[in-house]
Every structure is written in C-alpha cells, then in structure tokens.
Amino acid sequence: MNFLAHSLFGFGNSGLIAGQFCGDFVRGSDLSQFDPDIELGIRLHRHLDRFTDTHAVLLPVRQNMPGVAQRFAGIVVDVMFDHYLAQRWNQISDIPIEAHAEQVHAALKHHEEALPENLKRFMALMQREGILQGNVRLSSIELTLHRIAKRSTKLSSIALKEEQLEPLRDALIVPFNHFLPDLNVAAAAYMKKAILTNRKPQSGNEHRQGSKE
User: In the chain, fewer beta carbons within 10 Å around the N or the C end?
Assistant: First the structure.
C-alpha cells in the first residue's frame, strides 16, 4: 500500500489520516507522544502493511516481476495499487478523488505540529504536485517510482518507465481485484477491535467510511 491507499483507510478522520501518513515516517513502538487518533492511525498503517506483505495472492506477483529484484518488487506493487485505486476511485469512495486529496491536505495541516519534519516536507510536495489525484496517470506512477529509487542505488531496478509499467498494470489487475476486498475486511476488523478496546478515534470530520467495496 502506498499513500493513496493508506489515506483511504483514514476513514475521513483527520487524526487517523495523519497517523496513516506518519506510518511511513515514524519508527519504534513507543508512540505516546502522539494523540490517540494519530497513534491508532500509525498502528493501523503498520497492520495493513503486514497484511499486504503476507497476502497469498500477492506473493507470486512479487516473485515473478521481470527485471525487478524480488525483495523490492513489493514497492512496485504498492505504488501500482495506488494507480488502480485512482482509476476506479468513483466506485470505491463516496467523494471525488480531488475532494479526498483536499481532505487529506487539511488533515495533515491540522495536525502539522505533531508531524515529523520529513513528513512536513513531503506533505508540501504532495500538495504542490497533486500526487494523490495524480495517481490516475501512469506517468505519475513512473515519477513516484523514480523518486523512491533515488533513495538508494539498491533500488535502481524499480525505476521503471511508463512503457514497462503498462504490461505490469494489466498483469496486476486480477490480484488487485482479489486483494482489495480482503484489505477492506482487515481494516474494518482492526478498527472494530480498537473500538472494543476503548481506542475509538476521538476527532470528527468523518465524511466517508473507507472503501465502498
């Protein structure tokens, strides 16, 4: 899962959304410095990442991605799934993707003081370049993968070009269609457990409740 997918499972709650983004920028198990909603968002982010990494339908995809090292293939899968979500957003969410992006930007801005510095830099870039809604274009997926690849020379194999992504997109659509309903169930189950253990999100602004699927 990448940023668009994680933001979907913020369930329209500003604290959960901020926590979902913090999940890629915060390390360690001690999250006591964060408000309860943000902490829950981080823990949900990590739970969904583990669920994705171990899902049976995705394992063959990672093992058979031409030209990409197997240990990094999951990155490509995560980013491509944001492309699928963006392309079928109107079937998944009750609000347009542009409105969702604005909701995300507002949530991050509202909780800006609690965010790590590297996330603050990224949120400015994300808003300036329209990264969330841009996932609908394969050219934007290419750009995202190239950005990630710049973090380390070991990641060079994921810097795929748009023409390389086109056949991969076709090959991944069936696994995606099988995976998304299971992901919805996993997210809902985690949130139900959190509510039952008195970790219900505290802040409001719930405009929608995740995926419709």
Answer: C
